[in-house]
Design a protein that fits this description.
Layout: E1 2-9, E2 25-32, E3 52-57, H1 62-71, E4 77-82, E5 86-87, H2 89-102, E6 106-113, E7 127-128, E8 142-145, H3 146-151, H4 170-180, E9 185-195, H5 208-222, H6 226-244, H7 247-256
Parallel strand pairs: 1-2, 1-4, 2-3, 6-9
Antiparallel strand pairs: 4-8, 5-9, 6-8, 7-9
């Protein structure tokens, strides 16, 4: 059985659409309310469904939301989900079955944008993740054996992610923590959802906080080797940042850690 953990916030819950009841699927909906303009609108009828656990939090932080969701899961597997993704239960079940047969602890898959484009090039075959391949993973591509996460004390690092001063990088930190712990972390080529055409991960340079998140992410993952990865990231991204007119601030923050 699979639990889908859906993180949502404030008024966004009004647009959340869960799938019809499925015997092998349940939901944990984590609703963060921290906007003063939110006036406790009536919640959707799905909240009262037997297959839905609704949790309200009064503070922001996407990683905090994910962790509260993970702590509430009662099934073996959990899928990390956002509130704006049209997900496919049949494909998710296919992914979980593959994990079970192949004894995979953490699996990643793929999604497509609403315009039918892909966020990146995906492999046509399954493969074991490395510290480098894990960098490409988005949170909505992750399905995990919750029992294995708990055995190894793995959660999302709450210093990272939307709603913090380091608003990205939490999924890469999570993935590499799993790899470092010796979990079986694999990619499986199945498309489990459709996402709006814009993602938050595309912007890493328009504010010092966004750039600093990348720098701190590398430090968190690679320790004393981090500067090699920081420099490589700066070299790779500089051409696009120059075109966007943010090269100076990006360089100052990425290489020197200055805001």
């Amino acid at each position: 059985m699979l639990t889908i953990i859906v993180s949502t916030a404030n008024q966004r819950i009004s647009g959340l659409n869960l799938k019809p009841v499925h015997s092998d699927v349940c939901y944990v909906v984590v609703h963060q309310v921290y906007d003063e303009s939110y006036t406790n609108e009536a919640l959707s009828d799905f909240i009262s469904r037997d297959d839905v656990t609704y949790i309200r939090l009064d503070y922001p932080g996407l990683s905090k939301s994910r962790n509260v969701g993970l702590s509430s899961v009662k099934t073996k597997y959990a899928y990390i989900m956002d509130d704006d993704v049209d997900f496919d239960l049949a494909k998710m079940s296919q992914l979980v079955n593959w994990m079970e047969v192949n004894q995979v602890d953490v699996a990643t898959c793929q999604f497509v944008f609403e315009n039918d484009s892909l966020p990146r090039s995906y492999s046509d075959a399954s493969f074991k993740h490395t510290m480098l391949s894990a960098a490409k993973v988005s949170s909505i591509e992750i399905c995990a054996n919750v029992e294995k996460l708990r055995e190894n004390g793995i959660n999302f690092d709450e210093r990272f992610g939307l709603g913090t001063n380091l608003p990205s990088g939490e999924e890469y930190v999570f993935m590499t923590d799993c790899i470092k712990a010796g979990l079986h972390v694999w990619f499986y080529p199945v498309t489990t959802g459709v996402h709006p055409n814009i993602t938050s991960g595309m912007d890493f340079y328009t504010s010092s906080h966004k750039t600093l998140a990348k720098r701190e992410m590398f430090k968190r993952i690679f320790g004393w080797k981090a500067f090699l990865f920081i420099l490589a990231f700066w070299l790779k991204k500089s051409p696009s940042v120059i075109k966007a007119g943010h090269f100076g601030p990006f360089t100052k923050t990425m290489l020197l850690g200055l805001k």
